[in-house]
Amino acid sequence: MKITIDADSVTYSENTKFHGFGMVSGNNSSRLLIDYKWEHPDKYQEILELIFGKSGLNITHLKLEMGSDVNSSSGTEPAILRRETETPDITRGAGFQLAADAKRIHPDLTLDMLWWSEPRWVTDSPDVYAARYFWYAQNLRAAYRTYGLKFDYVSANRNERAVDAEWIKYLSRRLKEETDCPYRFADIRLVAADEEARWDIAAKMLADDELFDAVDIVGTHYTSFCDDNVRALLARGKTVWFTEGCPPMSYSKGTSRFDGSGLTGINGVLDVADRIAAMFPRGGMTMYEFQPVVSAYYDGVTFCHKQLIGACDPWSGFYSVESGFPMALHFARFFRKGDYFVPSACLCDGRAGGDGHALVGTEHSFATVCGGGDYSTVIVNPSAVPKRYDVEVTGLANASAPVSVWETRGGEPFDRHYFQKVQTLTPAPQNGAYVYSVTLAPHSLLTLSTREPSEGSLPAAFPQGPAAPSFSAAFPSPKERPILSLPYEDDFSYAAYPPDYLSSRGGAPRYTTDEGGAFEVCRRNGRNVLMQQITPELIAEEWGLTPPPVTNFGDDRWFNYRMSAEVLFAKSDAPEQNYAGVGVRYRLGSDGASGMNLRLYENGEWRLCKENEPVMTGRVAPADSAALCLEADGEVFRALIDGRQACEYRPAVLQTAGRAALYSSYHTNAFADIKITPISPHAPYFIERFDDTDAVFTYSGDWTHELMSSFKNYRRTVSCGRQGAEVCLRFFGTGFALFGASDGRCRVLVTADGVPVRGGEPLPEAYFREAPIYRFGLEPKEHVVKLKVLEGVYRLDGVEFLP
Questions:
Q1: Which of 123, 162, 272, 546 is exposed most, by the fewest CB atoms within 10 A?
Q2: How far from chain centre, in Å, is Cα 602?
Q3: CA 57 to CA 449: how far, in whole Å?
Q4: Residues ≥6 apart with Cβ < 8 Å to 304
Q5: Cα–Cα distance, 164 to 155 (Å, whole number)
Q6: Rounded distance, CA 448 to CA 376, Å?
Q7: How far apart are CA 780 and CA 774, in angstroms?
Q8: Does residue 109 contact residue 60 with C-beta atoms inside 8 Å?
């Protein structure tokens, strides 16, 4: 295959210019960064440098969610203006504070904001457009007043919903007419319409001159392909962006055991690289916005395990650099904002397929930009065979310059060959051009560039060259992930912190992430309490699905522990509907309620619930407050109210390890004096967790390894064994739990050190991340567990060991 890098093919126009990479901060995805900033400011700075700095991804554009207290997929973003008449509090949420800190690293970073839903007072207004504009303007004014932020763009349309052309035109007019503004709102450019893999906005713009003039940037989500209407807009000079695209979702360390590289498959590293390479030749798009870059929320939320950087351990400062990060470096360290795409050297022959967002069937995929006489080309090979490319360069000042070759491919260890400089080529003159050849290994990624990433493409500690042990050697290792030790307490006073601790973060308590409602620290009866703020009249229109108010926090490896809190009821007109509760072993934020929880109602009724389903109920005397405690002790749960045991419950399947949680109805109930303590000072209160693709498992027989499955599976993987399939694991500890969904029809034989654990009877039904197979009370030594499938399909998601 020939790649012709011909300077004469370049159209030097705004809409063929590379506009950089963007980051979407929304859906609760940046929440825990606030805690990194307070607990480990050095690690916070490292993370931001990796995202926005010239030593990292050099993200050039940041888009923030305008919060409305609804769950916009992986959590809630708080509204800065819950009531029209209140003073806006831009410190709520992480987004605007993140933008201010990012601008200190990257002063030229451009800012944008977008809405998934809007405060209820906007939706209920007799003049919705006027109210919505007031909300927009208040966000802009408050961001400038508090952080000095000036927004370069605003996204006009509601995220991934029908195009509202009249609103877009209204917003454009009002911004251009605005005089009550700290900077020229008239200079803010409009982005529209953030649809999901659709281009309805393009047809509307071609049919409406005012709409055409109002929209500066045309953008859509999750497709690298445009239609004829978009091509017509491009011909008329409009700029088009990929305004939301996913980072890779694969767990490469484990999946590399089965695909040989850890890079393949739908939503994998090479698939996402393919989408980026395809966006210009197939869609005319000149920016790709990752959603998210960093996942600073807890595992188990909707669409989780989707990030370039993982940051959910603020107590220790640990963060992980995922396999998508070196993929992004292939572009970000060589494609510079302001470069121009070279059409003759941009091609992708893949087609949309898989989940609808993916590219499949790709044989050839490459993208090239040029600037200042230099050029850079990224070539993607998602196939299982080597690919040779003959490169010809003409018309560029540095066409004859040495070419650096950077490669990412699989190896041992899995990331040994991630973003490695493998050679320098010298082009040969030939008929007025300069030529050379490269061969891509199967399942690999290559960057060719006359530039060196001299501004520091990686941390200084990164070991380059043949002796480099692995890409991750420069970053924290998974073995360095410390547990959040118990006991843990929070009275929400934060006396050890500076006086502005709470006011600088909108009253957000330490380490919490909200899946529904809004939990903020405030004063009640002379002391700090954590109060749920959203009442029925404040509930915004749904974007997806918001559960009843729940917040969760802590370490998802906590197992044998008790969670206690004082709950203080708000007076209500329906005491039978007003509840507050505590939860343990919270694993799946995607479900709202997760694990076990104890709920006490204002009328004195109590319910012990598995997720949202009551499994035991009772009643105590009604009171304005109560002390609730829920103990998780192996497979047994005990509920206590005001120090007296209300019930004890043993589920049919083991509830695996998880975080603590607080629950409330849509009332301003409050919580005080949170305490989390081990069940026993002599027994481990935490577990070690491994994925089904990790090396602790040895498989034989008829297994199918799904390397990209539901986000409810741990790390999105699951292994399915059929009759005769066997798996063996070794561990040192006192207990184990094999977790994974079960349909109740599979029969397995399980032994631990030769002693039967399951004798072949059907496994009970189990939900995602529950464990139908477990055994505790083993001697503290090395153990061997063996499993054989007798009938049906056994789904293995992972294992937890009691150390």
A1: 162
A2: 36
A3: 17
A4: 74, 295, 297, 589, 590, 711
A5: 12
A6: 6
A7: 16
A8: yes
